[in-house]
Amino acid sequence: MLKKIQFILFIFIVSTTSVRAYADLSKDAMDALISGNYKTAVPLLKRLAQQGNPSAQYNLALLYKDGRGVVANVAKSNAYFSNAAHRGLVDGYRKLSVSSIKPVSARNIVAVQRPVPQEWVKEQNPNFYTLQLASSTNAELIKKYFNENNLTGKAGYYKNKREGEDWYALVFGAYPSVAAANAAIATLPEDLRKWSPWVRKLKSIHRIMTP
User: Fold this and answer.
1) 67 lies in the same domain as 36
2) Three-state secondary structure along 49-100?
3) Is residue 6 part of a domain?
4) Other residues' Cβ atoms within 10 Å of the Cβ of residue 18
5) CA atoms within 13 A on the CB side of 95
6) Which structural domain range is residue 185 located in?
7) Number of domains the chain contains
8) Mean pLDDT of 106-134
9) Which of 1, 89, 127, 130 is most buried, taking the most CB atoms under 10 A from its CB?
């Protein structure tokens, strides 16, 4: 017998003429989840997930994790958890088994003398590139990931504002080119790759950083 799982309500982040259709689709998906009609819920959730809805991404991750309405698939589950997390849904990060992440190699990373996380970001060459691992409105969560994974001197985090709200982002490594940064993704431990790292130019990060 399948255990009961806790789905989350939908976050509405649409402000276009299609709001009503979007809301109707979200309601249908949530109704299907609540009634246990997972096969009906899955295609609706996928449509919402493709539009960037973090709640749909999170709920899909739960379905793939437990094999409800779909064939169980850990890789897809973690990918959806990661997508939800990158959209700011903190629960997505918590489902990624952070405690299993191991310290990473410092290979190909530019070292700095002052390993304070915020200073690390500031002191990197602005013409270099880095890998953004995670972002959240929860500063303590980002600090927790940094400290638990022994990233001192290898990574850092920074604060910026988005739509008037403080966001915190964890970045890893400094690489001289986009190609080098992309190549480095494959060398990360599997558990870090589950966060779907993406390449950012340090100059753009320096521009938006706030104290």
Assistant:
1) yes
2) HHCCCHHHHHHHHHHHHHCCCCCCCHHHHHHHHHHHHHCCCHHHHHCCCHHH
3) no
4) 11
5) 30
6) 102-208
7) 2
8) 72
9) 130
